[in-house]
Design goal:
The protein is an alpha/beta fold and 319 residues long. It has a single domain (24-309), classed as TIM Barrel. Helices cover 35% and strands 15% of the residues. It has helices at residues 24-32, 75-89, 109-120, 139-148, 165-170, 177-188, 209-221, 239-245, 254-267, 295-309; strands at residues 37-41, 95-99, 128-132, 154-161, 194-202, 226-231, 234-235, 273-276, 286-288. Helix 3 packs parallel to helix 4 (139-148), helix 7 (209-221) runs parallel beside helix 9 and helix 9 packs across helix 10. The structure holds iron/sulfur cluster (SF4). Iron/sulfur cluster (SF4) binds at residues 47, 49-50, 58-59, 62, 65-66, 102-103, 133, 159.
Length: 319
Amino acid sequence: MKRDTQAGINPFPYSDSNKRYHTFEYYLRQRFGEKCARISLDAGFTCPNIDGTCGAGGCIYCLDGSGSARGGGELAEQYAAGIAAIQKKWKCSKYIPYLQAHTNTYAPVEILRHIYKEASSLPGAVMLAIATRPDCLDPEVVSVLVETSRSIPVLVELGLQTIHDDTAVCINRGHSYSVFADGYHRLRDAGGDISICIHLINGLPGENKEHMIASARSVAALKPDMVKLHLLHVLQNTPLHSLYLKGAYTPMEQAEYVDVVCNQLEYFPPQTVIARVTGDAPADVLVAPLWSRRKTAVSNDIDKELYRRKSFQGMQFSP
Ligand code: SF4
């Protein structure tokens, strides 16, 4: 029985609500029987794009590894604090420890093995999420991810951001699309209980609607397990912040963002889980765009626009 507030008229098959795209919540309920909470963790990694290995200074929008878990400390303590914060908002008993800050496959394999084991053993953990870059997926690292997935499902959060190499240079990303494709396919072909979530950012400097849709279409052709669509945020004291102050960068408007996301959703395969349709910047460091603080309003606008178009995820997807 569909829980459809649109009186049963939602034509999208991977939904039991008014959502016309395959939400992460729907996926979790199908897989684990209930909504699960992601708990962001900082395991003390760094990033090759910060320490000089492939670049210095990091991506121009990066603030302290761009994770919401900041400050470090023991994983178990961070995890307990994260759960306590979630429990104030809603009750749940299943969790996804999320190694989010910096590049969480960038260390010797023995250290990776140790941290993954510790994180996957945290109480209530049903899946382990690991954020990384495509240039940090060499064969030994991929073997550790496969090994870890024998004890807990692994979700690799893989940053691509754009398929356009000139944009990647502009944002100091430190890798090209071909490096992404190499890492992605190595991981995809490795087997194990590993899901891959590809991240794209809308509103990157120099990109227009056509650029963003082209990125989505290329990613859609990979038929990925999951995708996260982010909005570029200007965070305090980043190189992007300097560009913004000089008037050299203009953030997207809300209506423009909603239009682009709806177009992108139409190209993704219906089976691909859309793990995020809006960004999630820490309020204390967000400079612009401030409309992005109203996440529910943005998400509602996407729902309304898909409804208005009589559209849904995958409408333009060609298998
Ligand atoms: S890859 Fe991530 S952690 Fe590294 S510089 Fe870019 S945003 Fe920061």
